Amino acid sequence: MKKAWILLPFLILTGCAEENIRRLDVEMYNADGDSLGTIKLEEQAKGVKLNVDLKGLPAGEHAIHIHDNGKCEPPDFKSAGDHFNPENKEHGLLHPKGAHSGDLPNLIVGDDGKVKEELMAPQVTLQEGKKSLFTKDGTSIVIHEGKDDGMSQPAGDSGDRIACGSISKDKKEE
Length: 174
Prior knowledge:
oxidoreductase, 7-stranded antiparallel sheet, mainly beta, two-stranded antiparallel ribbon, globular, signal
């Protein structure tokens, strides 16, 4: 019986660990419904790391944001809602009052339409809580046609939404 009591905390902790998602792939789609690749999310001590590996995007600099709704309905992806902003801050990484939690550095897409970058989202988590990307309505990642100027409200004057991917604990395809 003593051995069972010793193992019990380990079994409980193991069960809890299975509920905590530390890594997640987000499939990104364009307005035609074509897959552009994945953005791998990984929980880190300082936020969530995004490993971006996409192709088929227009060359140049593009804004990328986390949005407050997990729906990605083409062609305009307006269903993704506004930027993820649980602390009601202003938009822009350059804003003196602080940025939305969903504001990220711009992506640089090569002439071949490919981008491989690592970004950090320091104000979000994959764990439970106010800054969790796993909200009741879900969240999403949106790429815009232009770059984010880092200050303009509400979205950095970044233009139309050209790609979207839903962030969800549910691994099923939508």
